[in-house]
Amino acid sequence: MTAVLDSLQQGRQTVQPALRAAIDRLDPTSRSIAYYHLGWTDLDGNPTSGGGKAVRPALALLSAEAAGAAPETGLPGAVAVELVHNFSLLHDDLMDGDTERRHRPTVWAVRGAASAILTGDAMLSLAQEVLLEVDGPAAVAAARLMSEAVNELIRGQVLDVAFEKRHDVSLDECLDMAAGKTGALLSASTAIGAVLAGAPAATVSALAGFGADLGLAFQLVDDVLGIWGEPSTTGKPVYSDLRARKKSLPVTYSITHGGAIGRELSAWLAAPDQPDEASLRHAADLVDQAGGRRWALDEAHRRMTAGQHKLEEAEIGDHAREELLSLARFIVTREA
Amino acid sequence: MTAVLDSLQQGRQTVQPALRAAIDRLDPTSRSIAYYHLGWTDLDGNPTSGGGKAVRPALALLSAEAAGAAPETGLPGAVAVELVHNFSLLHDDLMDGDTERRHRPTVWAVRGAASAILTGDAMLSLAQEVLLEVDGPAAVAAARLMSEAVNELIRGQVLDVAFEKRHDVSLDECLDMAAGKTGALLSASTAIGAVLAGAPAATVSALAGFGADLGLAFQLVDDVLGIWGEPSTTGKPVYSDLRARKKSLPVTYSITHGGAIGRELSAWLAAPDQPDEASLRHAADLVDQAGGRRWALDEAHRRMTAGQHKLEEAEIGDHAREELLSLARFIVTREA
């Protein structure tokens, strides 16, 4: 899988200067907060090595290649998806009360709510601006694709927030939420390069469908890691999603399809007391015994297969197809 | 001034259905929060009469007329500026901790921070979408104009938040903040109709300049009302800006240009205790005695005159010019 790491590294090297140039247009305060959030500097503004894997930008470049264009054709799209992704992280961390991301304090936790809100707003607006500066008719098409993805992203987050107060969330509702919250932006990432390359609608649609499947698969695995993941890998405390009583996909499956064990899990989630480590381990076991873990991993596999079929039927080059599939597998399994 | 009220009423009648159609595309939760925020329904979703004056949409329609087009040409712009305006209100009320707007509880105060953040995000994204759906090359031009206005709006709010923690804000910095926070969107409102009508750059630029001047004049008067305004008119408690120790334009003028009285005012603002009514009245008197009130009203007049000159030199129809000026005077004086 070193080829994937190479491709990610290459993506970062292509995208980083353009992303930096975009961020540098922000006012000095938002810029320095964005630098910190992106892992480019510490709180005092000193450069740090780090930052995310930038999988969405890499997908956007491959998306352009898939449409027979140079990866650079997808560059404004790569910058835009990374900006939108980080807009949503800034706002979500605040709304979810998460104090850590990538092993560092979140922006709202160290700089206050206003900083997280405004830097997020600025990054969202900047994403559209970068796309609107593209020459030719692809600018509007790409900006519209992004607008729709942002709408879906917000819709997903709205559902996520609403589900926290509900005890009757169905599996379909939960899948719909994940399609919005995670699927929409990954779908835009795998399609936007092709849109910028002026690809036919059928190609764009196949790539978008692949990205949506990839997004669901990623979320299913992410939810499994949110319960059983190693803190050193996830950057979150163990049982983190259970601690937050999150109705994630495996939890919702277990509640709605797990019979008596599901009911016990549901009662555990509704209990008002702060659970200790043993209680969390017990809840995790309930999710497992009710079939939620197995289902989530199987469903992730099914989504990946469905996405792969869409790519195989699309009229795209073999090399780009292979790269997209390798990157997708890496994103889902997080192993290289 | 009944002509102005007619023109506003007409603007609302033209814009309201399109704005509603746009809002209706949001997910049900965001939609119902937007309805409440816009004054269309109460908290339970029952229809109410009310809502803002919608001056920005009226300016956008007149902007199209100024460029010789039908007002309807400016309609997507009118919807977009109203959406962006309300995006910023939703986020600002949360960041500023304001619990009341238009005599009703603010969204964050009744529905929580996440609702205000997400509904704001959704309205911002929707504004771009509405513009991107316009046929022809004006779509990109209008969407770019709006993107730049949003960037400026956010920059202004970033400065506003930063100024709260500073005691050395210069008058120029304060004017620059107001130009971003208030001027940018009014400037976009007076220009976007002309952009959608495909007007020459010189006309767009004159209209944008007029709107920027109008924005500054409005903010100067708004800041005076923030101290001395009648609660029944402003919908805010008396001395509201002093209570919040806001370094508004008249306050900043008095501090930086008011000699000994200014220093006394500065010390008052820095004091840690919660001021009572008598203390607030005393502070308001200090702003007055140091010349801040007079300067703000004079400066508002100068800005209006400068804006009027820009309109007079622009190649636009007499009727639209008169209507723009009347509406501008109404916005600034709030009398009809």
Automatic annotation (TrEMBL), chains A, B:
**PROSITE patterns, per database record:** POLYPRENYL_SYNTHASE_1, POLYPRENYL_SYNTHASE_2
The record's annotation in Pfam families points to: polyprenyl_synt
Going by the UniProt record, its keywords in alphabetical order are: Magnesium, Metal-binding, Transferase
Q: Which domain of life is it from?
A: Bacteria
Family membership: Belongs to the FPP/GGPP synthase family.
This protein's name: Polyprenyl synthetase family protein
Origin organism is Amycolatopsis pigmentata
